[in-house]
Amino acid sequence: MLEVSRLAAGYQGNDVVRDIAFHVDPGEAVMIIGSNGAGKTTLFRCVIGLLGPSSGEVRFEGTDITGMPAQRVVRLGIGFVPAERRLFPRMTVEENLSLGAYPRRPDPETLAMVMDLFPRLAERKRQTAGTMSGGEQQMLAVGRALMSKPRLLVLDEPSTGLAPLLARATYEALRVLRERGLTVLVAEQQVPLAMAFSDRGYVLENGRIQTEGTSAELAANPDVRRAYLGVT
Amino acid sequence: MIADILDGIVLGLQFGLLAAGLTLVYGLGGVLNLGYGQMAVIAAMAVAFARDAGVPPLPAVGLGLLAGGLLGLLLDRTVLRPVYRLRGEARVLLSLLLTLGVSFIVDGYLNWRYPLKALTLHIGGGAVEILGVPMRRGSLVASAITLVTVAALFVFFRRTSLGRAVRSVIEDEEGARLVGIDPSRMLRLILVLSGVLAALVAVTRAMVSPVDVKSGLSMTVFALIVTVVGGLGSVYGALLAGIILGIVNVVAADLIGTYISLIILLGAAALTILIRPAGLLGVKE
Asked: CA B12 to CA B19: how far, in whole Å?
């Protein structure tokens, strides 16, 4: 579904990530784990088209999307939830959600599905996004991305800035979406949460993919255990 | 005094509409258009020449609005192209310099070729009494058109998905891209809209007093002052500031004198920045 090969990207000529190759198959949940500054955000920004690559290739469902601007990539069927969420703070929950479906009118069924997944959003339809709590904003960011009916949902550190309970709730929602057939790619530094959720994963360190494997393999890997699972 | 306030509201609504066009372009694209007043003047001249050629008033005004919109499009496609390659402060500065250059060229040409040309649109009929004050029919028609335009803008931004898409770019450009909105297309649309608004203000001004070829600079300056007081990027702020400054301007001009009134306006703008750096309804960065 998503195939990335030999990708390099960065800022002002300095590559932050280099020689990246990974893939996501339909129906999978895949994680990219790594510490702060490993290059997860740079990698995702490049995949989604917010940042041009310096070399390499990104394909989505067979289409070459390398260097395609984000506004076109998302219309192909990828939803992206950035770590900073990027909501429209002075607009209401309803307006944020309906913009998620742009340029089409919001589909009532999808809207009902989002409200059902996150009942808090239904309660706060007329509240402006900027006045909501971090957890509610995260729900809204996921909900907005879902409004375009993506086949692949990409999330950059969905647990950032959330209390443990809310972070778990976010992953619970992702689990529900997966059961309904959505393919999910997630970058995370809170590894235990992501590991319990994903089928497979890649470990990103200093801008390169160091290890890959199924979640069970990674959980058994001594290096991964020491660095990300707090096991000595 | 009541007459002054009513006159001030009429003028203020026009200021507000003028500033709305300027502030939208700035809020959306970080482009400060100092040739804005000249867009209004060119549109006014288009109407004036159409009238001279025997075109009836309404179609002539339609031509003027069309000219305004086309000027916005032209700006987007030509002068602003190098500006779009820059970001942040450099973008604002280059847009300011280039559009200022355009305004000089336009002013120079019009002053050389048509130094005495002016647009006046006479609205027939006698004065109408409002709150015991006789108001000229032209002022009332101008106010009515301005109010209808403000209402239409409100509906566009609140109720239509295109209007919401424009607002989303002002609120968070990257967020807008992530829902599939192309910010550069929205900016082009708003530049066209700002050209139409400039033309509309020129036409409604011409119903109250003549709009001559030299009014470009003062229109830009008024729009800029109102924008600063209202808050950059805020349409409602522009309208509110427009009305307040419109009243201040007319009252000051009446009590002290026209020349001093401009200084008072500038003073009001400076005071606003000292007290509320983001403007009346502006958003803090």
From this structure: 10
**Does the pLDDT of residue B126 top 80, yes or no?**
no
Interface test with A, best of B179, B185, B284 (most A CBs within 10 A): B179
pLDDT tens digit sequence for B30-73: 999 999 999 999 999 999 999 999 999 999 999 999 999 999 99
Residue B41's domain spans which residues? 2-275
Confidence of residue A107 (pLDDT cuts 50, 70, 90): very high
pLDDT of residue A71: 96
From the list B161, B277, B135, B140, the residue with the least C-alpha distance to B207 is B140
Whether the per-residue pLDDT at B283 is higher than 70: the answer is no
Q: Tell me the DSSP string of A61-104.
A: TTEE-TT--HHHHGGGTEEEE-TT----TTSBHHHHHHHHTTTS
C-beta separation of B196 from B68 below 8 A: yes
Check: CB of residue A87 under 8 Å from CB of residue A27.
no
Residue B285 lies in a domain: no
CA distance A34 to chain B (A): 24
Determine phi and psi for A212, rounding to 5 degrees.
Answer: -145, 165
Q: Is the pLDDT of residue B155 over 70?
A: yes
Q: Which one of A50, A89, A147 has the shortest CB-CB distance to B174? A: A50
* CATH code, domain carrying B220: 1.10.3470
In a domain, B195, yes or no: yes
Q: How many residues does chain A have?
A: 232
The partner residue sitting opposite B175, judged by closest CB among A69, A86, A147, is A86
Residues of B in contact with A98 (CB under 8 A): 161, 164
Selection from B256, B192, B173, B240 nearest residue B17 by Cα: B240
Any domain includes B283? no
ipTM, two decimals: 0.93
* Cβ distance of A80 and B178 shorter than 8 Å: yes
Q: Name all domains of chain A by residue range, CATH numbers in brackets.
A: 1-77+154-232 (3.40.50.300), 86-149 (no CATH)
Task: State yes or no: cis peptide before A103, omega within 30 of 0.
Answer: yes
How many domains does chain B divide into? Answer: 1
Q: DSSP letter string over A210-231?
A: EEEEEHHHHHH-HHHHHHHS--
Q: What is the pTM of this model?
A: 0.89
Show residues of chain B in contact with A86, CB under 8 Å.
Answer: 172, 174-175, 178
Contact between chains at A91 and B171 (C-beta distance less than 8 A): yes
Residue B285 binned pLDDT confidence (cut-offs 50, 70, 90): very low
With respect to residue B67, please indicate whether it lies within any of the assigned structural domains: yes
Edge-to-edge strand order for the sheet containing A55-60? A14-24, A2-11, A55-60, A63-64
Q: How far is B178 from chain A (nearest CA, A)?
A: 6
Q: Closest by alpha carbon to B17, among B245, B279, B267?
A: B245
Residue B180 is nearest to which of A85, A89, A102, comparing CB atoms?
A102
